[in-house]
Amino acid sequence: MTQQMRIDGLQYANWSETIFRQMREGGVDAVHVTIAYHETFRETVLNFERWNRWFEQYPDLILKGLTAADIDVARETGRTAIFFGFQNPSPIEDDIGLVEILHTLGARFMQLTYNNQSLLATGCYEDEDTGITRMGRQVIKEMNRVGLVVDMSHSADRSTIEAADISERPIAITHANPHAWQPALRNKTDEVIRAVTQNGGMFGFSLYPHHLKNKSDCTLQDFCEMIARTADQFGVDHLGIGSDLCQDQPDSIVEWMRTGRWTKEIDYGEGSAAAPGFPAMPTWFQDNRDFGNIEQGLLDVGMSADEVAGVMGGNWYRFFAENFGGQE
User: Fold this and answer.
1) Taking the mean position of all CA atoms in its chain, how far away is CA 302?
2) Class of domain 7-106+172-323
């Protein structure tokens, strides 16, 4: 019997052979990996280069993903397809022409903001959300043209809703949870989730403890019941997993994620001054080998086998198939 497809909508791990092998042990067919937070174009190219070396070193474990068909190849050959994305538009700098260049290099997702205001939109940590900027509208149009998915995971509410409406193609929130379940700046209101999903977009549920009820102590049942309720409310076809797994990263990386180069001070974000590093993951999801726990948990809270198959990978697969190519 062929295992159900498993696709993770976002990870930012400290990549190694160990993690690649854990992906295979966990039956993970595809992962969207972050290869830029605050990097410039040239620095992002260096990150592409580093991944190219890993593809050469571990050809039996991973392959570069450009289309959904690459997931089929990965499943047939026992590997994991790696899809690239940015958590900030910094790789395009102030040049709309770099959207197509980066898509050609292999990028398939780009957040319009991280936590702060960008040239394109407003991040979720800003006091005032002025929505999509003039450049943002043009960049969304270009992203639609080439097949680079608009990701609003770290963006503020108005900006996200406007992006969903402006974009001619479905957008994604690759890693977040409902704000009603766990109030956090990064979690999304019903209005935001509705705007994304009713336009055909995808919502990926995050395992990052700051976004979970009771944080590191969140139970598998609580997490899975939340997914089931969200499916009832917004439709199961637009939901997936976006674990936001930051495995084996040193705490200094949290500082890089939050501060980049925009401040001389430490921005603790959703952490606290007493605990600025990575929080402990829930016991039932430590690494890529634990996706089976979520799958079983969803079945245990009453979701059907078909619904679970969609959330665990089928919905992301369909979204990838429809949105990674250029427009005719």
Assistant:
1) 26
2) alpha beta
The C-alpha atoms of residue 326 and residue 311 are separated, in whole angstroms, by: 26
Residue with the bigger pLDDT between 276 and 274: it is 276
**Domain spans, the chain:** 7-106+172-323
State which amino acid sits at residue 232. Answer: D
Nearest partner of 223 among 185, 182, 195, 183, judged by Cα: 182
Q: Over the stretch 149-188, which tens digit does the pLDDT of each residue have?
A: 999 999 999 999 999 999 999 999 999 999 999 999 999 9
Give pLDDT, residue 285.
98
pTM score: 0.96
| Spatial distance between the Cα atoms of 100 and 140, rounded to a whole number of angstroms | 12
Closest by alpha carbon to 242, among 179, 301, 177, 304? Answer: 177
**Helix, strand, or coil (residue 174):** strand
Q: Which residue, among 202, 223, 214, 238, has the nearest Cα to 285 in the 3D structure?
A: 223
Helix (H, G, I), strand (E, B) or coil at 59: coil
Give the integer Cα–Cα distance in Å for 188 and 192. 6
